Amino acid sequence: MKLGRGRRALWGAVAIALPLAACASDGKDRPKSAAAKAPPVKYARDPYPSTYHAYPGVPTLVRNVTVFDGEGGRIDGGAVLLADGKIAAVGQSLDAPAGATVIDGAGKYITPGIVDIHSHLGDYPSPQVQALSDGNEATAPITADVWAEHSVWPQDPGFGRALANGGVTTLQILPGSANLMGGRSVVLKNVYARTMQAMKFPGAPYGLKMACGENPKRVYGSKNREPSTRMGNVAVDRQTWAKAVAYKRKWDKYEKEGGDPPDRDIGMDTLRGVLSGEIMVQNHCYRADEMAIVLDMAKEFGYHVTAFHHAVEAYKIADLLRASGTCAAVWADWYGFKMESYDGIGENLAILDHAGACAMIHSDDENGIQRLNQEVAKVLSSARHAGIQVSDEAAWKWLSLGPAKALGIDSQTGSLRPGKMADAVLWNGNPFSVYTRPEKVWVDGALLYDSSDPKRRPVSDFELGQPGSGDVK
Amino acid sequence: MTRALLLLAASVLAVPAAAQTIAITGGTVAIGDGSAPIERGTVVIANGRVVAAGAGVAVPAGAEVVDATGRWVTPGVVSAMTDLSLVDADGVSESNDAGARNSPYKASIDVSVAVNPSGVKVANERLGGVTRAIVAPEAGGSIFAGQGAVIDLGSDPDALTRARAFEYVELGEDGGKLAGGSRPAAWALLRDAFQQAQDYRRDPKAFDGRSRDSLVTRADAETLGRVLDGQLPLLVHVERAADIRQVLGLTRDYAKVKLVLVGVAEGWLVAREIAAARVPVIAHALADLPASFESLAATESNVGRMRAAGVPVALASTGASGGDHVLRQFAGNLVAITRVPGATGLDWGQAWASITSGPAEAIGLGGEIGSLRPGRRADVVLWDGDPLELSSVPVATWVDGRAQPMRSRQTDLRDRYLTPTEGALPKAYERR
Asked: InterPro entries given for it (chain A) (predicted)?
């Protein structure tokens, strides 16, 4: 997505500008009467910067392997070379550089690492005890001020399971859906670290979690306050966006012209980021009619909804989603667990994709994240039995490149394109078979899971020294 | 009147007679008893029961022959520990009869009276290959959740296979919470309730059970008496190895109790003890996270390791957010991990048994349902491929020997929206 790359460029510029705390204008353009104004000081856009670093890898050639490149391409009996943390080459046959590890991939498949756009790992970790339940700041319907990264517990055993059983190499951690505006998301590399910052995906844009429907109206209705209805949901959203538009106007003016800085509002910073296109909207929403209302609300206030999440009824409005350039991140077959999921069908993703809308798989679940490849396999089965033909290699886009685009990180990961991060999974068979599991997982070229080497199996601090520590999981 | 009669006659005629003898020939036959699939086998059903299944089975004269060449023929999936038929949408409390937090009745609650065979989920899940369900109540106001039922998923109104099929009890962490805050409180409650059930048995007339402060009602005492007699299997949910040991101790104190363990995330740590006590388990299939302090040792190898130690294993449908049909994906994963170094899974036959005969046998119904052995109810599914594979779906299904409709509300929604844009009229006018 063009927008994604544009945003990244902007972030880069901001990061460089920060230490200077300077404005773009040197004062020459301004009228003399304004010259007395104090120069503007931009607030930090990235105050908790990523300290992630790639771990060492060795040049690795996997050959004689079936390649799904993640962009819809497939090579049977092909080869992939990982070197210097990057995808170095993909082709029918490649020569091994001196000193490279060579892996025979006969009967195996290699794919990009899976990107899960909807996870709560770290914020709702295992064990699921109240003391670690940090995913919903359910004390007010608008909490755009909270950042999911400040709740992430890097010791969640779930990260390791998602890596070893699921082949997940990148994931977005979202606040929960109790609130209309639940706060900022964070994108992580799925690599254990001592700190959250050391897991942060370098340069990934932020997201704003929004929610419509049953959850906010139930949570606040039960506290006898607005919103207690769907119309209340939209009313509170609109009032908040109207304030955000005014906040943005004030701060845009100040950051251009200087003078007395307006009051800071941490939540409004996030909404201003959305209105300026720097922060992507990730909107929990089930029902088709509600998604259509949210799309109009976005037009009303001048922002773009990047993706609807769960979107159980997205198939009913595939044409509207296509026209607005909004994605749907969905489960394969979840339905019937609440009123707004009553109309869920297994063909949701396939109908969206067939209609030309942007669609992808997501987990929202610490168990489902371990089997996202199987979730797509179920979608493929539903699609093909309904007469919609999709190839296996095309379907892999729903697992990596699609979510990477909707996170604004597709120039760095999401496909086996030379120059991208060497985030890859070697599967011990066709990854759309129930009988297949990851054999090796690389993140930035570092081998971080190897099914045949217990030393390449992560054990979080929490599990160390407990029953079952270091076991296969 | 005449019209009503005609409609009735039509609906009766629309249900193919279960008496019809049907021979399903040429397919890969999985009996469901743990044995390996049989290629080019034949399954014969008549009068709602399995007559024979396997290789070299003769087709009876006059039988309707269904060609299953290139396909698989199996018993339908038995979904264990589900709320199917009790609930329309879990989060919609008005539609949900699984639990009763505020009822004064506990052990005697009988879910069979709430079974709704025409709930849309029943048909949806039947289309996923599920033909029977072990329906469990959810504990609300006590460690005693009540009595579960066994149902079929046929399209006819008679769904009950067995009412009051078992008693379901929460011990461990959930039991402690329900009993007032601790495991010891849950055990005190359990022991006292069993004692009162024995009192009731000895002298029903002397038993109080109707005064406001009585801890066990007469109805509950009567139900628990049947548990102690072994008439009603006792299904106990526990996860931690130490809790499992405690529960196994019940078999020493109450010799007739037919105990079944449910959940058992740490079962592999005490697998030999469970096997020695000859207690079957209905386990989480793939729970591999320390979801709580009672499941720290959880691993996907749990079921395989218990099976290897001689424990009769079945899979629970807990965690199947996509619906009960997800059980076959669970079972398939247990085959998958046999190729992961250090992991223990199940072979294909054991995996299929863990979602068919396994749950049936755990609650003492193995002679009735869950396999294609002669005499079992003819719940048969014809699949277009390996039923553990994600690419396979049922192409025909029989329940009690009756062919089932292959449509559901989900297929109706799918067909309405395969082309999402509207035609000449609103979508509300588009239906088959």
From this structure: Amidohydro-rel, Metal-dep_hydrolase_composite, Metal_Hydrolase, Metallo-dep_Hydrolase
